[in-house]
Amino acid sequence: xxxQIKLLVLLSIAFSFLFSEKLMRIHNSxxxxxxxxxxxxDKIDFIETDQGNGxxxxxxxxxxxxxxxxxxxxxxxxxxMKYEVTNAQYITYLxxxxxxxxxxxxxxxxxxFTTGNRYYDLAAGIYANYGQIIFEGGExxxxxxxxxxxxxxxxxxxxxxxxxxxxxxxIHYGWSLPSIEEWEKAxxxxxxxxxxxxxxxxxxxxxxxxxxxxxxNGTTPIGxxxxxxxxxxxxxxxxxxxDMAGNVLEWTRTEVPGGYIAxxxxxxxxxxxxxxxxxxxxxxxxxxxxxxxxxxxxNVPAPAP
Length: 305
Ligand SMILES: [Ca+2]
Ligand SMILES: [Ca+2]
Known about the structure:
Elements: H1 3-19, E1 23-27, E2 33-37, E3 48-50, E4 55-58, E5 61-65, E6 70-74, E7 78-81, H2 87-99, E8 103-106, E9 109-112, E10 118-121, E11 133-136, E12 139-142, H3 163-172, H4 180-188, E13 249-256, E14 259-263, H5 272-275, E15 280-284, E16 292-293, E17 297-298
Parallel strand pairs: 13-16
Antiparallel strand pairs: 1-2, 3-4, 4-7, 5-6, 7-17, 8-9, 9-10, 11-12, 13-14, 14-15
């Protein structure tokens, strides 16, 4: 790139940084699109339905979908996890499923007892960039890399889990994986932004490659970009979900030839389109990779009697 082009790119980045975050994209009934300046308001109110487990209510209605900001509708309420599923949560499931005889350990993979489908890679490698789950003494636990302590990776998102392994977890608790439409509504609402908080990504808002977080180059604890941790700005989606851009890619239940679509990009991505809420990433059903995890959706629970 020559110096003049470089300067133009830098100027356009600076321009979009200054102005785009304060504009809300409005889809008009005649099909046209206009922009409204929302000034200093940087997020809309959201309802967190369950503080303990962190579920966010996504009410029925229209939302922005896809690269070209199409208006689509989901005509039912649902809830989605506030955070990505953690290593500790996945281990709780694995130990329960193992004791119930639903899963087996075979050649370093956790597999379904009934179908033989691969769920989790137990031998991908014990590094300091995410929590590798291992099987030892008849139970699942997180490997502790040199220089780390037990528990350090409990709250990091699970990775090395296949679409089948993510679905098995969801089914175990009576939940499911989101469709790409549900996932994108949870990430964008009607705001029309590329990212859950606006149109510009920054190292204070998400974990991507080179974001300079203390865990570079690896996963951050779920909900790290909360405005409390040093160097972060509170960055939930309009419905209150965290890490929908970056940290780990998230499996959906939307099937295409060859596999399922994953959303949101990861700590390994520098290609910002993959990190954008409308970006799609195809992965084979049984793929287990070091930057792909998931979160679940569920029906809105009946109110307590
Ligand atoms: Ca990073
Ligand atoms: Ca994510």
